[in-house]
Write a structure and sequence with these properties.
The complex is a heterodimer of chains A (113) and B (113). Chain A is mainly β and 113 residues long. Chain A has no helices and eleven strands. With 113 residues, chain B is mainly β. In chain B, strands 2, 4, 5, 9, 10 and 11 form a six-stranded mixed β-sheet that branches. Chain B has a five-stranded antiparallel β-sheet with strand order 1-3-8-7-6, with no helix packed on it. Chain B has no helices and eleven strands. The chains are: A mainly beta (113), B mainly beta (113). At the A-B interface, strand 4, strand 5 and strand 9 of A face strand 4, strand 5 and strand 10 of B.
Chain lengths: 113, 113
């Protein structure tokens, strides 16, 4: 079972460059989300989606865009990378209801120089 | 004040010891509670859900105190393989259908031989 597949695993960007982090899940989950994890800060919610065509902002959305054209895919776009976006990014998916396990991708370690 | 607060540790304990972690949350309307485990440079994975009546899974016991708004995790007979960061996770009750996981910063456990 693939679960949640997140690519790339590592990325180095120059300030001002753009890129897309890919996330795909094969569990038919309605809910997908993106988090960033920084030392001492825990995981913070960037954007989330409750289904295809529906997205919303989380706690730290600035500098990021998302779209959800299919149930399976939830890409995260960095519009113009900044050093403050250096972080580890995790994509997660789950059923809706608030009681079920969330499954995470393996993470993307992004460095912006 | 952070929505979910944990003692970051590290907790250094010998093999076989019993160790307890606490976590407090600020939103009294929170509906679901979990402990996730995160190994170094890996994604978070569900350890156990936390129920009002308390629940046990082998050497792990989780408790929820809604009146005092805290969650605890007790690990008995610690193993070297228990070394990891333990993340307290809360899902607040919202008007819409979401699974917004709110993470604590995590507690680092290091079990020593």
């Amino acid at each position: 079972n693939a679960g949640v597949t997140q690519t790339p695993k590592f990325q180095v960007l120059k300030t001002g460059q753009s890129m897309t982090l890919q996330c795909a899940q094969d569990m038919n989950h309605e809910y997908m989300s993106w988090y960033r994890q920084d030392p001492g800060m825990g995981l913070r919610l960037i954007h989330y989606s409750v289904g295809a065509g529906i997205t919303d902002q989380g706690e730290v959305p600035n500098g990021y865009n998302v779209s959800r054209s299919t149930t399976e895919d939830f890409p995260l776009r960095l519009l113009s990378a900044a050093p403050s976006q250096t972080s580890v990014y995790f994509c997660a998916s789950s059923t809706i209801g608030g009681t079920e396990e969330a499954f995470f991708g393996q993470g993307t370690r992004l460095t912006v120089v | 004040r952070k929505e979910v607060e944990q003692d970051p540790g590290p907790f250094n304990v010998p093999e076989g010891a019993t160790v307890a972690f606490n976590c407090t949350y600020s939103n009294s309307a929170s509906q679901s509670f979990f402990w996730y485990r995160q190994d170094c440079r890996k994604e978070p994975k569900l350890l156990m859900s936390v129920y009002s009546s308390g629940n046990e899974d082998g050497r792990f016991t989780a408790q929820l105190n809604r009146a005092s708004q805290y969650i605890s995790l007790l690990i008995r007979d610690s193993k070297l393989s228990d070394s990891a960061t333990y993340l307290c996770v809360v899902i607040p009750l919202t008007g819409g259908a979401t699974n917004k996981l709110i993470f604590g910063t995590g507690t680092l456990l290091a079990v020593q031989p």
